[in-house]
Amino acid sequence: MGHAYTPGLKVSAAAEYMRSRMLPIPGELQVKQGDAVEPDTVVARALLPGNVAIAHLSRELGVAAPDVHELMLVKEGDEVTEGQPIARSKGIFGLMKTTVNAPTTGVLESVSKVSGQAIYREPPIPVEVKAYVAGTVSHVEPKFGVEVTARGTMVQGIFGIGPETFGPVVMATDDPARPLLPGDLKPEHAGAIVVGGSLASLATLKQAVEVGARAVIVGGIDADDLKDLLGYDLGVAITGNETVGLTLVVTEGFGELAMANKSFRLLSEAAGQVASVSGATQIRAGVMRPEVLIPGTVAQIEETAVDSGMLAIDSAVRIIRDPAFGSLAKVIELPPEPRKLETESAVRILTVALADGTQLTLPRANVELVDESL
Amino acid sequence: MTDAPSPGGSTAGGPSSASGPIRSILATDCGSTTTKAILIELTDEGYRLKVRGEAPTTVEAPFDDVTVGVTNAVTEVAEVAGRTILSEDGKVIMPQQGDTGVDLYLSTSSAGGGLQMLVAGVVRTMTAESAERAALGAGAIVMDVLASNDKRKPHEQITRIRHLRPDMILLSGGIDGGTTSHVAELAELIGAADPKPRLGSSYELPIVFAGNKEAAGAVKDALDDKTALEVVDNLRPTLDTENLDPARDKIHDLFMEHVMAQAPGYDKLKSWTSAPVMPTPGAVGEIIQTIARERGISVLGVDIGGATTDVFSVFQNTFNRTVSANLGMSYSVSNVLASTGLPNVLRWVPFDIDERELRNRIKNKMVRPTTIPTLLRDLQVEQAIAREALRLAQIQHKEFATQLKGVRKTRDISEAFDQSASGATLVDMMALDLLVGSGGVLSHAPRRVQAALMMMDAFEPMGITTLAVDSIFMMPQLGVLATVHPEAATEVFERDCLVLLGTCIAPVGKTKGGAPLATVKLGLPDGTKEFTIGRGDLTRIPLATGLKAECTITPAKGIDVGAGPGTPVTRSIDGGEVGVLLDGRGRPIELPDTAAERVAAIEGWIKNLDLYPAVPSTPAPTAAAI
Fold first, then answer.
1. How many angstroms separate the CA atoms of B475 and B493, rounded?
2. Does chain A have fewer CB atoms within 10 Å around its N or its C terminus?
């Protein structure tokens, strides 16, 4: 018997979650500690420095860079509007003068005596950060942002695409093992977080976009369909900025895979409530998984097996690589010493029992903890 | 710095402590997930690896202190070695007193994403490329290369700079006495973008200017009050010379002073070490260069990781490093498939497989990167993907590791018909002496011959090449040691780091009518034997580690094994855990056209090389079937 740290996806009806909502540069906070916020509450605003435009004045005027300054019609720091004359050559005997106009509206920031370049700064760009989740402002980082804390249901997925969104949860099927079909998506799903079963095909996802669903939560997706949906083959799982018309959360993996019973049950119980959903996934340093968060009343936070990360006898696990990929199983043996696999690699292993009693010996790296009772 | 012995001390072959030569060396490598520690001791046989240990890296929450992981890894080393290395307050004790403490402590780091740089130069293929070479050689990940002629409009370049948030920028441009206005334009462009460093806005972004010395004033005007600007000697002082060391050295200094100083715990780590902490890939480059220099050989090294593949080479005394971002075996495995295409992976696999299922399987590895193959067929698919990741990384390396571009050449009459322009690749696989592989898929391949064949299939060494793997990936620690004590680094590298696999003999060229390519006479321990290399053959001849064999290769007419077409070669070759591999598959390797013939050929090679265990491939249970 032994223990080992094993990661897993958190699925709980009684979780506490905290989300950091920070500006990229210093700005102004719009809320204060203790404020209640909704997903679309603006919590912080800032002005990003405007875009820069460059014009090569010495080339356009046909003079050497050090001579540009004496031909300027405006000076550094002046505001200019697009098309406004800002420099004019002397011409020949006062004729054939060349005029250079401002390429954009903004401020003439500098004119270089070495390169002859003029640099214009466009007006600042406003940036807003919203709360994303309904909850309470639990921490304030002056000028940068806040942390919002809430309690409720949390369902992590394995992979997702698309930005943060929110909407009411709608169950489009009552069977977690049945694929979500295009016909399951109806006009009344506009603005909703649609929960399906084992697979969403490309046709289904296109139909979801067509009806205006904000997000689809499903057990699996086919790699080829993901490629067609994105328009490119995703090489590295760093996502969250895709613009395919909806946010997608895949709870189990690639291929047709029944959604875990607990995930499906918790989402069913939340039907009609507003969920916050993010497709952002990042597998490397600072792991980030897609998520569905549904605020609710939670008196006691649940400490789950996934929280502990400890694999032990009787732990419920999901097998995450062939053979038996996707199956749920119970740990029955955790021998401490490495053993040789069919490949001849010597690794730490475990023995699990599947629902039908079949026993399998697998590398410990090939299971993840699940918050299920088996 | 501690009161450790000063590097570069007085004894022949290395620095010394107050009580004589360095007796013990502790070195750590703080990786993004694991911190690895090694202890080296001076023995009667010279410097040898004593023990190694590892612990999770602790640069991120909840620890937020890299030294916690370092202390844990060193504690494991101390326990196994049976000596005290850390003081009660957790610091490395230096110098060694009796059996307590060590004489030197060194470290490398790639934690927190390593060193991420933006480089810029005037001409993409000249100063910008030299700047890229300097940054890569220093161990950086190059996020983008800006050049005056990179076809992007200035506002696009500015948007890119603002978006990237690098750790550091290397700006070059102009040979000394050359253009100043283009360099000033670049500096003004960077100034206008007002870039912020990745690890926080509480400090100024370090920028190294290594361009035309006459442009330094204009660069200062544009950048001095917005950034932490450092000016060093021009990295391309003339068209036909590169001078990369001042820029590389300054990058190393700034890495520690500015970048790592922002990472949690590094101030403490810096105060423990006897020499500056180096970026991990920069340290690997150091050991590769040291070996090439000390043995007078050409070396190609590859480190295939989960996310990226680094290739290092020294040909014609010139060092090059490339990083193939997003070519790796876990996080980036899906990108390997996207880059090379499924047919290129499947050509190495001796069985049929459902393509849709394989694509799903690879995407599942991408999202659950720590899983490992249980079934032999799964291992074979992973090794097929590794071949393609290595092959693509090698292509990128060959394209980058070139002679300087833009050099005017005087040609004599014999060269007038030679079409090779300046900028030809330095990577000459026929001239390669030593090919070293590192990274899990190579170092931990269940059989060493699998690593040998993956490297042969991907890199296609020509003529006679020694093959090796780094068994426990201690090249980073030995690299930083090489900057302080090259003798110790070389001794440990040769005795404890390198696992010699053997020698690959690969004739190049075609014979008529399928005639043999060459005959090989080998002086083996049980007598001299003669072998024939037929077209398409792949043969393994045992020759144990530590043994050498006198070898005479007589190629057929038109066939080259290193001395020119048809010219025999006689030399001593290395044995190893695999032995001698005679490769008659041609260069590039010719695989049969039809699937049936290809599978038959691969199965033949598997049998000849004893590549895999003879597992009766039982049908794997699947989730659907259970």
1. 8
2. N
The answer to whether B239 contacts chain A (CB < 8 Å) is no
Contact call for A236 and B326, based on CB within 8 A: yes
pLDDT digits (tens, 9 = 90+) for B404-425: 876 655 555 555 454 445 578 9
Judge whether B380 and B345 are in contact, CB under 8 Å: no
CB burial class (10 A; 0-12, 13-18, 19+) of residue B602? buried
Cα–Cα distance for residue pair A280/B15, rounded to 1 Å: 51
pLDDT at residue B280, as a whole number: 85
pLDDT at B493: 92
Do B135 and B35 lie in one domain? The reply is no
Cis-peptide, bond into residue A323, ω within 30° of zero: yes
Does some domain include residue B282? no
For residue A319 the two structure tokens come to: 């097998």
Domain total for chain B? 3
Do A343 and B444 make contact, defined as CB atoms within 8 angstroms? no
The radius of gyration of chain A's CA atoms, rounded to the nearest angstrom, is 28
Q: Which CATH number fits domain A11-17+146-295: 3.10.450.50, 3.50.30.10, 3.30.420.40, 3.40.50.1820?
A: 3.50.30.10
Q: Do B396 and B437 reside in the same domain of the chain?
A: yes
H or E segment and range at residue A168: strand A165-171
Strand locations in B270-317, DSSP E? 278-279, 299-304, 308-315
Please indicate, yes or no, if residue B191 is contained in any of the structural domains: yes
Among A183-192, B165-174, B404-413, the range with the most confident prediction by mean pLDDT is: A183-192
Question: What phi, psi does B85 have (nearest 5°)?
Answer: -120, -30
Contact of B530 with B521, CB cutoff 8 Å:
yes
Nearest residue of A to residue B219, measured between CA atoms: A114
Q: What CATH number does the domain located at A312-369 have?
A: 2.30.30
Distance CA B275, CA A225 (A): 52
Dist CA B386 CA B328 (whole Å) = 8
Q: B371 vs A226: CB contact, 8 Å cut-off?
A: no
Q: How far is A72 from chain B (nearest CA, A)?
A: 19
Phi–psi pair at A240, nearest 5 degrees: 135, -20
Which residues contact residue B151 at a Cβ distance below 8 angstroms, ignoring those fewer than 6 apart? none
Task: Tell me what the mean pLDDT of segment B62-81 comes to.
Answer: 89
Share of chain B above pLDDT 70, in %: 91
